[in-house]
Design a protein that fits this description.
The chain is mostly helical and 276 residues long. It is built from twelve helices and no strands.
Length: 276
């Protein structure tokens, strides 16, 4: 493997663990906190974390604003709302992780040459996730989650082409500050919050892991690997979520989930080891 690829994988491994853990944590917290409120808290914690990390310096501009709306605001609202209101949260999660397919489509439209090995790897990766779902009932939550996957893909391509050299802490501080008031403005649409000590602690942990540490790993992986490889590598997150859900909640993956995970791993390997 090239040194660039190895540096990228250095970020993807921790990313899979950190973002994978956010799924069981969100499941626990959502009993007492509404999805939009969870999203707002994540943005608030992320803003405080990145402002401190960047010594209260932020990266401001039109391109930064577009990136914030696509990668943070729309994406996370669709993720939390879609998986919460869907009758099949697992399928909603798969819709979010169709992101690599849309990244591949958008990059191809923009003229990027994509190897057949990468295309096969990404298709295998998403197919593996789809096999993990035993129910295929479509509802509004599924469609919202799919919109989240499209928004994340657009944000990934836009960031890679316009802001890859930006300071990650300064950019994330700005994106959190932009997304927080927008999310708070629509929070009353579906609001409930039972402030117990356990809930508050878990919300803070969720914000630190999912919004702060996770996005440091994600944007650094994008810098090192490019949009297509990094997006394929993000398919490791649902697999980590299965494992960590078992360890934290005792939810054992089914046979289809295990088979699908193996297929996804093969697809990720094919894509991240392909030539640019």
């Amino acid at each position: 493997m090239s040194s660039t690829l190895l540096r990228g994988l250095k970020w993807l491994g921790p990313l899979a663990i950190v973002w994978g853990l956010t799924y069981p944590l969100t499941k626990i917290v959502s009993e007492d906190v509404s999805p939009l409120m969870i999203t707002a808290v994540r943005f608030g914690v992320g803003a405080i974390f990145f402002l401190g990390l960047s010594k209260f310096k932020i990266s401001v501009g039109r391109k930064q604003f577009v990136t914030a709306i696509l990668n943070f605001t729309i994406f996370l609202i669709c993720l939390n709302v879609g998986t919460s209101i869907s009758s099949n949260p697992g399928l909603a999660a798969v819709m979010i992780y169709t992101q690599p397919i849309f990244v591949m489509i958008f990059e191809r439209i923009l003229g990027t040459k994509i190897s057949s090995r990468s295309i096969l790897g990404i298709l295998l990766g998403v197919l593996g996730l789809a096999l993990s779902i035993t129910s295929a009932s479509l509802d509004l939550g599924i469609l919202i989650a799919l919109l989240g996957g499209v928004s994340w893909a657009l944000g990934t391509v836009y960031y890679s082409r316009n802001l890859a050299k930006e300071s990650v802490p300064r950019l994330n501080a700005f994106m959190s500050l932009v997304s927080l008031p927008i999310t708070l403005a629509i929070t009353p649409v579906d609001y409930y919050f039972v402030p117990t000590p356990t809930t508050i602690i878990l919300l803070v942990i969720l914000g630190i892991l999912g919004q702060s540490v996770g996005y440091i790993f994600w944007f650094n992986a994008l810098k090192e690997m490019g949009s297509i490889r990094a997006s394929a590598g993000s398919l490791l997150v649902p697999i980590a979520a299965y494992i960590l859900s078992f360890l934290t909640l005792g939810v054992l993956p089914s046979l289809l989930e295990a088979i699908g995970s193996v297929i996804t791993l093969i697809g990720v390997y094919l894509t991240v080891t392909s030539r640019r």
